[in-house]
């Protein structure tokens, strides 16, 4: 049957329903495009024959091929569109800089070869980031507001977090630099302003820090810190 | 609360199909028994059982829903579409007797979706099909909802494996609600958590993604 | 929340060009109303840029005032919490809108195009810019990767047909703020007839969004 390759592309994405981005199946896409070309050529030939020789009985088959062409087109664009939705998710989950292992998924299977497909995906992503950034910057008459933060309503003044990974140095608003080391227990405060005096002391004494909550939200989402609920 | 950032295109409602919906594309891949009402020259290779170059008029074969829908015309009929067994009168009687005992995953898994799509083809049985679909859904809904709202930390696979795709979605949304409520009750709703997407990406090694 | 706002705003000089007098409490109530409606309605509602701008201004005031409060003042932490809470509602509101814009962009832009003069705009100027860029970006991508490599008659996809429209037949919960008479309810099944209901002030209902959409935009009902 026609269009099997095209549906295979869709199945590939459908199997990964959590929104992860699988490597781009460039080979699959190429095969679908080849099938489309063949269908189109065959139809052109049959249309000409039907016209010039008055062979109206060819029309049903022409219709079949046309349906297949539309089906291929639908599957391919749906494949691409769904990939965009997954790429979009990366911006919201990881922030604007993607880790290397995730960048990989934007690419085709043959490593980081810069094909038109890969390039176009990266372009879409960077334009999306740009659009989102200028939208957020322009909020409130140019004041700006980062709406990718504050994903849950704040409930408490402090949050306690555990550091799951060595993340290196991290700068707090007041310029203090703290070291986020694996397994260190950290208390992060929403009300960091009233406690910043304590903060300076604690940094030197033990790995306990007070950070504005919005600064750690992203680190928690990325799995660097874990929010401990006592 | 919706913290999931991947928001796939939802399937269409009722008789509608959404162009970009992966679910709808897979639904329209379901095969229907058809009978050709004219010859299809030069497409004989699509019909495995014969060696002829053409598909002859009057051939009985199976075609996917998308093709049957694309070729179907009321005026100039080149194809007649037959009902798949589960929508025929025999099965309708079974469904109407007690819809709760039927394994809709086996019968489907797009029992409601495909059934609604069948209404695109002119058939005198359409009102009865529609009625059966609706009654089946209503008849099973309470049980689906009850179990999704009450099964907390229980193995629900026995219930879920007999559900149609649409029912599965409803079941899952009920479970999400239940878990959300439980975690709120335990005071965990405000806990900031790592994105499940991030965690899943990390679990997968790069070698796994190569097809 | 209101208390903190007026408190925080009181010692700042009010040079604002706010013509209509709105107390901070009313402002936050307006934001919450818009937020809940936007969160629960299946379609994008009319933009409330003026509310967004006023709230942003308030937040700036409060932040500025907080800077002047002495370190260690217990009141400051309460204020900080309030700022965070308001900022959450505001962000969540803007997020819901952006999500719907991304979900329905061709339709949102189409409505904007066919909007009559003097009719209020669905999109704020920033949202309009975002939606236009999103459409252009997506079309460019589809074209470059696949469409332009397809046969000549298949090189375009009508985005209005491809991207689904909001489902106005979804059901929503609502609370009535102003009594309504003779609301026409469409039949659910063939053997039902349409009928009219009166919605009493303060009562709560579960109804088809389409039926009460005009009441949401007029502010007569609140989605919950």
Automatic annotation (TrEMBL), chain A:
Species of origin: Betta splendens (Siamese fighting fish)
Function: Required for correct functioning of the GINS complex, a complex that plays an essential role in the initiation of DNA replication, and progression of DNA replication forks. GINS complex is a core component of CDC45-MCM-GINS (CMG) helicase, the molecular machine that unwinds template DNA during replication, and around which the replisome is built. Required for correct functioning of the GINS complex, a complex that plays an essential role in the initiation of DNA replication, and progression of DNA replication forks. GINS complex seems to bind preferentially to single-stranded DNA.
Gene: gins1
CDD domains named among the record's database cross-references: GINS_A_psf1, GINS_B_Psf1
Keyword match Nucleus: yes
Entry keywords, A to Z: Chromosome, DNA replication, Nucleus
GINS subunit domain segment(s): 56-138
Name listed for the protein in its UniProt record: DNA replication complex GINS protein PSF1
Localization terms from the record: Chromosome; Nucleus
Any single biological process term in GO: DNA strand elongation involved in mitotic DNA replication
The keyword Nucleus appears for this protein: yes
PANTHER family in UniProt: DNA REPLICATION COMPLEX GINS PROTEIN PSF1, PARTNER OF SLD5
TrEMBL record, chain B:
Similarity annotation: Belongs to the GINS3/PSF3 family.
Protein's recorded name: DNA replication complex GINS protein PSF3
BP terms from Gene Ontology: mitotic DNA replication initiation
InterPro entries reported for this sequence: GINS_A, GINS_bundle-like_dom_sf, GINS_Psf3, GINS_Psf3_sf, PSF3_N
Domain GINS subunit residues, every copy: 93-185
Subunit structure: Component of the GINS complex.
Taxonomic classification: Eukaryota, Metazoa, Chordata, Craniata, Vertebrata
Species this chain originates from: Betta splendens
SUPFAM superfamilies attached to this UniProt entry: GINS helical bundle-like (SSF158573), PriA/YqbF domain (SSF160059)
Annotated Gene Ontology cellular component terms: GINS complex
Subcellular location: Nucleus
Major site of localization recorded for this protein: nucleus
Keyword hit for Nucleus: yes
Keywords on record: DNA replication, Nucleus
Domain DNA replication complex GINS protein PSF3 N-terminal: 20-72
Entry function: The GINS complex plays an essential role in the initiation of DNA replication. Required for correct functioning of the GINS complex, a complex that plays an essential role in the initiation of DNA replication, and progression of DNA replication forks. GINS complex is a core component of CDC45-MCM-GINS (CMG) helicase, the molecular machine that unwinds template DNA during replication, and around which the replisome is built.
Keyword Nucleus among record annotations: yes
From TrEMBL, chain C:
Assigned protein family: Belongs to the GINS4/SLD5 family.
Segments crossing the lipid bilayer: none
Domain DNA replication complex GINS protein SLD5 C-terminal: 166-224
This protein's record includes keyword Transcription: no
Region annotation (Disordered) ranges: 1-21
Swiss-Prot/TrEMBL keywords: Chromosome, DNA replication, Nucleus
Start and end residues of each GINS subunit domain: 76-144
Descriptive protein name: DNA replication complex GINS protein SLD5
Biological processes, Gene Ontology terms: DNA-templated DNA replication; double-strand break repair via break-induced replication
CC terms in the record's Gene Ontology section: GINS complex
InterPro entries, per database record: GINS_A, GINS_bundle-like_dom_sf, GINS_Sld5, SLD5_C, Sld5_GINS_A
Location in the cell: Chromosome; Nucleus
Role, per record: Required for initiation of chromosomal DNA replication. Core component of CDC45-MCM-GINS (CMG) helicase, the molecular machine that unwinds template DNA during replication, and around which the replisome is built.
